[in-house]
Amino acid sequence: MKGKRRRRTTVGRGVPALTLGLTLVAGLGVTATGTAAADAPAYAFRNPKLSVDRRVDDLLARLTLDEKISLLHQYQPAIPRLGIQSFKTGTEALHGVAWLGETTVFPQAVGLASTWDPALMKQVGAAVGDEARGFQKERPAGWGLNLWAPVVNPLRDPRWGRNEEGYSEDPHLTSSMATAYGTGLTGGDPDHLKTAPTLKHFLGNNNEVDRTTTSSDLRPRVLKEYEEPAFRPAIEADAATGVMSSYNLVNGRPATVNPALNDVRTWTSHDLLNVTDAYAPNNLIGSGSQKYYDTLSEGNAATLKAGIDSFTTDDTNSVGTTTAIKSAVSKGLLKESDVDTAAGHILNIRVRLGEFDPGGGKYGSIDKSVINSPAHQKLARKAAADAAVLLKNSGATLPLKASASQDVAVVGPLADTLYTDWYSGTLPYAVTPKEGIAAKLGTSVASSEGVDRITLKNAESGTYVTAGTDADGEALQESATSPGTAATQFDVFDWGAGIVTLRSAANGKYVGYNWSGFVNDQVQPGGWFVQQQFALEEQADGTHLLRYAGYETREPWWSNPVYLGPTGPDGTLGLVAKAEAARYTKDVVRSGAEEAVAAVKGKDAAVVVVGSMPAINGRENDDREDMSLAPSQEALVKAVRAANPKTVVVVENSYPTTLGALQKEVPALLWTTHAGQETGNALADVLFGDVNPAGRLTQTWYKSEADLPSILEYDNIKHDRTYQYFKGDPLYEFGYGLSYSSFRYGKLKRFDGGYAVAVTNTGKRAGDEVVQLYTHQRVSRDKQPLKQLEAFQRVSLKPGQTKTVKLKLTTKDLAHWDVTRSKWVVESGTYDVLVGASSEDIRSRTSLKVRGETIPARDLSRVTRAENFDDYEGVRLVDESKVRGTSVGASADGAWLEFADAQLGSGAAKFTARVAGAAGKVEIRLGSPTGTLIGTAKASGTGSVYTYETVNAALSAAAKGRQDVYLVLSEGQRLSTFSLR
């Protein structure tokens, strides 16, 4: 591990600052005066020939305490007396620069990772970094060079609402892609940063439901083997310059004050700038959701000490943050040196970004011409094509023939539109699937969205729901008495889980709620609350209630679902209680399925584009409950397939989908994420064979939600999560993807540093193969993954060509976390080495005998942390104190912990433990939670979960030899440490 560069103790304000300035100036041979201009050589922080640390020390010494504190908010003000401009942390750049106007929009992150191509990822990162720099001459509102990307939370559960933002369920693949993307963003020179990327979201963040109050239980093995390996490599490689703390709690402690934020700094020799997620500091206090501290001063002090440098809260208003920190300093909760430390981290990044260099430093000349440049457009198209995953291709349905004589129809709700997600940039242009295919063929193509057009008539009054006909729409009313006009007609888009959107036929705009009524004025569903969502609830008499399903209705201030009905004499629709809701007769004036069938009949091929709308049924603040394709979309595919046997289905969404029976019924399936501006061209490239598909799935695609535990369950090992532990039969396995070519693998050969395998393209087309290396430990003291990805390489091969692919594997890669000694261990034994085209399609294998070590029997005579158990039931991991440490809390009487294979020797006589919380008892048993009772320690209760008492128990004569020891707890108890001596 690289040694941590320690900053010299920072000098204080006043005379020491001047002394330092004079000293540095003297060293530069420059005369210093008290009235030197801010950009004069007298200011050492502006001298690029000095080390970063010396420049930071100089600048920090020139700042007053108030000025240093002002730097700790997301929006850092200018300091005119030193010629320092304002600075902002946090420009979104997940798959392109977001929220600043038109920029190149690349495929969503999960799509980029599906390329399994770090070199391409680095290119994309470099392009995004260039475009972030492209705004530096104009500095539009919201711009900054501290980028909040990439998201490296492993995708342990496909129902996570932010699945599209991550890379993979595998930490190695995740970290590889993050390191490549981050290297592109930084420019690859840690001392001269193009941009300063921040990894999100640290730590254990894979659920949106109650995301600020749920706690992610990360037992040591899950933390060390799954969570940290996703974050650590990018930091170690200087491909990221900090982390963002997540909203959730980790082992009972809010992630905003997780001491691991400081521990991350030991992973690199360069300074890191750590930030909070938006508004998270306010969650900590009594008026917030977490109520962890009484006051903001206490919360901000703890946040700073835990390793946060920049507070993201209250939008542009920094007063709350700076006032609280000043108060914390005055009360002794913080020292000025604590402020100096955080401000120093921030200034270190700013210096490395070239802010204080002449001309803006190494990357200061980049201008807006790079944004959406032809080179970036070309790269976006390549990335989108390389990310596509061919799921099925029976009877060589694909590729289609690219000829103007080919008569192809393109249908489906996503056939002629592109959608963007919350963190997407603004599309500079949009090539839809229909447009891309038409351009490829050089002719027009038949098309249909395949959605029903309906009218809604009040069953009681006989009047129809009517929309405005002008471009900006009008408030919906029950006014028309006839369904014959477009104003009374709405296209119904089914997105699954009962949620639909309504698009007015009168002006092509979606209906949305504007906090007072419903207006047909929305170009697309979107916004934070996504107020364009509805549900048509059929009643026993065949009528329908129209429920408003915007996200804000899921918040606590709504006690019941809300429905639509006339709320005034003019029939204007508003929100009413269910009992007052209007009952509507739904009449279909145009069948989407019938229109699509008419479009595809007799055609040489039918392409059906189905999938998701990124703002609906899963996004930030909302998890998916249903992973299936929307029922109407599935019905559409079946109808098209019946009408045209050569049906190709493109599934365009951001997450694994169960797909129902479609996987069996259609001859060809292609998956793509929402892939940005070049989606249509990229799809056409793949569908017509200009690009041979080589994307691979980065997640397991399950057959049913029943294959998954609760989304709040974070213990992959115990609950058999991800391909590493899942024992069921998936729909598609991790690493899966087909090609138009076939590939043969030779025998594995070992070389110094890994394994080599010859791979031959046995097909007739040039293509890429993603060669994947997995290992499996046959015998271990601890439960081991069924397979674990250790290396991969995407290799290009011409027809008949053979290449030897070298995949790195060292003994160190075989280590796992030994909870008995809190260290990494490589056990002696036999390991399977498996190479193939996916986690299940293994083409070549060998075994490796390793001389490592044998994990000895547990020595429970030493003080043992309770969190280092082997198995458990009925417990949660909780905060030992508000500062540091993890205890185990019992959720019910009879909760238990197992400490397997303990050596009690000739006899242990005494049990000692530190417990807090409720009164109760700790039973010590052998063999099982109901096995031989060898002692009982009684706790009187401490009245506080943070106040511990020491309890003891005499042990019976049975407490000897090698045993599996179980501790059985009472509800409400917390156990920190124990020993048997």
Give the topology, please:
Elements (H helix, E strand, L loop, with lengths): L14 H14 L23 H11 L2 H6 L4 E2 L10 E6 L16 H5 L4 H17 L11 E3 L22 H16 L9 E2 L1 E4 L12 E2 L3 H17 L6 E3 L3 E2 L2 E2 L5 H4 L16 H4 L12 H11 L12 H12 L5 H17 L21 H14 L1 E5 L14 E4 L21 H9 L4 E3 L3 E7 L5 E3 L10 E4 L9 E5 L5 E5 L5 E4 L4 E5 L11 E5 L5 E5 L13 E5 L6 E4 L7 E7 L1 H9 L4 E7 L19 H13 L3 E6 L9 H4 L2 E5 L6 H9 L34 H4 L17 E3 L3 E3 L2 E8 L5 E11 L10 E10 L4 E7 L7 E3 L4 E3 L3 E8 L5 E9 L13 E2 L5 E3 L1 E5 L6 E5 L4 E9 L6 E8 L2 E7 L5 E8 L8 E7 L7 E8 L3 E8 L1
Parallel strand pairs: 2-3, 3-4, 5-7, 6-8, 11-12, 11-25, 25-26, 26-27
Antiparallel strand pairs: 1-2, 8-9, 10-27, 13-16, 13-24, 14-15, 16-17, 18-19, 20-21, 21-22, 22-23, 28-30, 29-30, 30-33, 31-32, 31-36, 34-35, 36-37, 38-48, 39-42, 40-41, 41-48, 42-47, 43-46, 43-48, 44-45, 44-47
Helix pairs in contact: 2-12, 5-6, 5-13, 6-7, 10-11, 13-18, 14-18, 15-16
